[in-house]
Design goal:
Order of helices and strands: HHHHEHEEEHEEHEEEHEHHEHHHHH
Strand order of the largest sheet: 3-4-9-6-8-7
Number of domains: 3
Oligomer: single chain
Radius of gyration: 36 Å
Structural class: alpha+beta
Shape: elongated
Number of strands: 11
Helix content: 55-70%
């Protein structure tokens, strides 16, 4: 009963009582006053009725929920089938959406990532595909371009390092980068600092995962000295948890390691003893030009388009062909948005998979709707009886909605739980693959000298093949 109906009902009773008092000889004004005092004010009565309606609605919802639970217990096969269909559809969709969101939809964890570009060499002799850049070419691209705020390089593979800590020696995977890389990405350290760009120093920056796994998030690790092989190095910072660099699509097909998650970043040198150890300089001290093993990432200047960057670096590449025909003849340049490079070739597969699980979810909902419809047809006699006993359409509709919401909530909860378990299983599987691949790499390269020899042979053979 609404407020207007309550008001009209109350006015009717007040009028009837007033007439009764008038019939007893009481003046009408006094009779009306007594009647209103007897029944109370309209506002107070309306408020009392609202409270009654509110509690009545809650009681009815509670009764509807109990009835829905009894109905679910009476039809266990239909209930189980409905919950299973919803759990599979929602669980699969949630799991794949988490993957798609993390790879395709979320922006790269860098500052203004749309301005970042990847720079690669390419040659018709290699089929025109993306190829890595030599250290000398990287320095030339950095010095001669007019369209990039800055450009930084990194090894196109992860280096297997023997890291000596206070209590043991273990294998870690490092990404060797030029000191300004994090400045190009627009990221700072969560603890400590990143590399200084004005001079080279034997320093490393830890990934958040390695810091948590190996040092138990000890804040005092910044400034600690460790040994990498036979060389001392200082931990100068820890990067934030969300930082990922490089993505697998940003690595080249070197084949030296199959692990793609980074434990630490080490600073790259182009002069001195460390440059020789990192193979960026030759025996005569000159920066290597005829061996290509660097990736390069740059940041476009404000207002500069991708096509302008491509034209600018293509001009630099043509000049290098003229200046260094033996090492650079036939070598052009490819510039790719960092976003496309990070996603790589998996975008079509992910979109296809996402569309497939979307169809699975749609089929699950259609099947559930058919099950609910068939159950409603079986309950026609029940509905007829309830209508005959005075149940209104709104009451019947509310009961049906409660039954559907109960099944939907239970199926959604099971689906999200399944998605959570699947996500944890995928992370555990990925970590297991990483450990097994790490063991494989260690077995192939049991000591640093062997790793250096393999690296040198592979790079020398590759360079000779290109020069022929």
């Amino acid at each position: 009963m609404g407020d207007d109906e309550v008001r009209r009902e109350l006015e009717f009773h007040v009028e009837q009582q007033t007439r009764a008092y008038v019939a007893q000889g009481i003046p009408r004004a006094e009779a009306e006053r007594r009647a209103r005092l007897q029944f109370g004010g309209i506002a107070q009565v309306n408020e009392a009725c609202r409270e009654i309606r509110r509690w009545r609605l809650l009681d009815e919802l509670r009764d509807d929920l109990r009835f829905a639970l009894r109905l679910a217990r009476r039809t266990p096969v239909l209930t189980a089938t409905t919950l299973l269909a919803l759990a599979i559809g929602i669980g699969a969709s949630s799991t794949i959406f988490a993957v798609v969101n993390g790879i395709l939809l979320k922006p790269l964890p860098y500052s203004d990532p749309d301005r970042l570009v990847m720079v690669w060499n390419h040659s018709p002799r290699d089929g025109g595909v993306e190829n890595t850049v030599s250290p000398a070419d990287y320095l030339d691209f950095s010095a001669r371009n007019r369209t990039l705020d800055r450009i930084d390089g990194y090894f196109s593979f992860l280096s297997t390092l023997e890291v000596s800590l206070s209590d043991r020696t273990e294998i870690a995977y490092a990404q060797v980068v030029t000191p300004g890389l994090f400045e190009t990405l627009g990221r700072t350290a969560a603890r400590g600092r990143v590399f200084r760009t004005d001079e080279y120093a034997p320093e490393v920056v830890l990934s958040y995962g390695y810091w948590r796994r190996r040092f138990a998030e000890d804040p005092s690790v910044v400034g600690r000295s460790i040994r990498i092989g036979n060389q001392p190095a200082t931990i100068v910072g820890v990067m934030p948890q969300d930082l990922v660099f490089p993505y697998p699509g940003m690595l080249g097909p070197s084949g030296f390691t199959r692990v793609t998650s980074v434990d630490m970043w080490a600073s790259m040198a182009f002069a001195g003893p460390m440059a020789a150890d990192q193979r960026t300089t030759a025996a005569n001290g000159e920066v290597v030009r005829n061996v290509r093993f660097l990736g390069a990432i740059g940041r476009r200047k404000a207002g500069v388009s991708l096509e302008q960057v491509r034209a600018d670096l293509a001009s630099v590449a043509r000049n290098l062909e003229v200046e260094y025909p033996r090492s650079n003849a036939g070598w052009g340049v490819i510039v790719t948005p960092a976003r496309d490079q990070a996603v790589g070739k998996i975008r079509p597969a992910l979109l296809l998979l996402f569309g497939g699980v979307g169809l699975v979810l749609m089929m699950a909902t259609v099947n559930v709707a058919n099950l609910m419809l068939s159950r409603s047809l079986e309950r026609r006699s029940e509905y007829a009886t309830r209508v005959a006993l005075g149940a209104g359409r709104a009451r019947m509709l509310r009961q049906s909605l409660v039954e559907s919401l109960l099944l939907s909530a239970a199926g959604g909860t099971l689906g999200l739980a399944a998605a959570h378990v699947a996500a944890r299983a995928m992370r555990a599987r990925a970590e297991g693959i990483r450990i097994s691949l790490a063991a494989h790499d260690v077995a192939l390269r049991p000591h640093a000298a062997g790793d250096d020899a393999e690296f040198a042979r592979a790079r020398r053979d590759r360079a000779l093949a290109r020069d022929i």
